[in-house]
Amino acid sequence: MLGPDRFAPRLCEVPLEELEASGIRGLIVDLDNTLVCWGGSEIAEEHLAWVQDARDRGLRLVMLSNNFSDRVNDVAQRMDIPYVANALKPLPLGFLTALRRLGLPRRHVAVVGDQLFTDVLGGKLCGLYTILTEPLEAKDHPITNVFRFFERLMLPQRR
Predict the structure, then answer these.
(1) What is the pLDDT of residue 156?
(2) Cβ–Cβ contacts within 10 Å for residue 4, how many?
(3) With helix as H, strand as E and coil as C, how does the chain read?
(4) Angle 116-122-128 (CA atoms, 0-180°, nearest 5)?
(5) How many Cα atoms occupy the beta-carbon half-sphere of 23 within 13 Å?
(6) How far is the C-alpha of 50 from the C-alpha of 56, rounded, in Å?
(7) Which domains are assigned to the chain?
(8) What's the N-to-C CA distance of the chain in angstroms?
(9) pLDDT digit string (tens) for 129-138?
């Protein structure tokens, strides 16, 4: 339940062509330490290019975050993608809302995020394909830092 289906160093290194070939048509993407640095709003050029490439391929995207609406809305608007804020990951409600916004069956959707106990666990609880990335930076919410300790125990291959 806690093992991701795939690893990728960063969001921009998630291979879109492989996902397409395996039937993925939609992506649920985490915000903090996946798309932008924790608490930040600057989107790296390579991540913007990846999002645009995904859209050009016809993939549907939605951003899913435990953060508050204003900040999530700001980042999502700059990428012109829908979002779900205050998601309470890993609980299924936010993921199910994101699935409805994508309008795709679960078997065609992947979750991309940097946290094992929110992104991967939540995706698995909803029967979704999961991709775990490395966090963009070491800085994180204090509670997340506690979970990072347990992640390192469970996934020794993670940096």
Answers:
(1) 64
(2) 21
(3) CCCCCEEECCHHHCCHHHHHHCCCCEEEEECECCCECCCCCCCCHHHHHHHHHHHHCCCEEEEECCCCHHHHHHHHHHHCCCEECCCCCCCHHHHHHHHHHHCCCHHHEEEEECCHHHHHHHHHHCCCEEEEECCCCCCCCHHHHHHHHHHHHHCCCCC
(4) 105
(5) 7
(6) 10
(7) 6-154 (3.40.50.1000)
(8) 21
(9) 999 998 876 6
Q: What is the pTM of this model?
A: 0.89
Q: Please report where in the chains the tokens 């390192």 appear, as a residue.
A: 152
Mean pLDDT value of segment 131-149 = 76
Q: What was the pLDDT predicted at 69? A: 80
Q: How would you classify residue 54: left for phi > 0, otherwise alpha for psi between -120 and 50, otherwise beta?
A: alpha
Q: Which of 3, 6, 7, 4 is nearest to 159 (CA)?
A: 7
Mean pLDDT of 72-80: 92
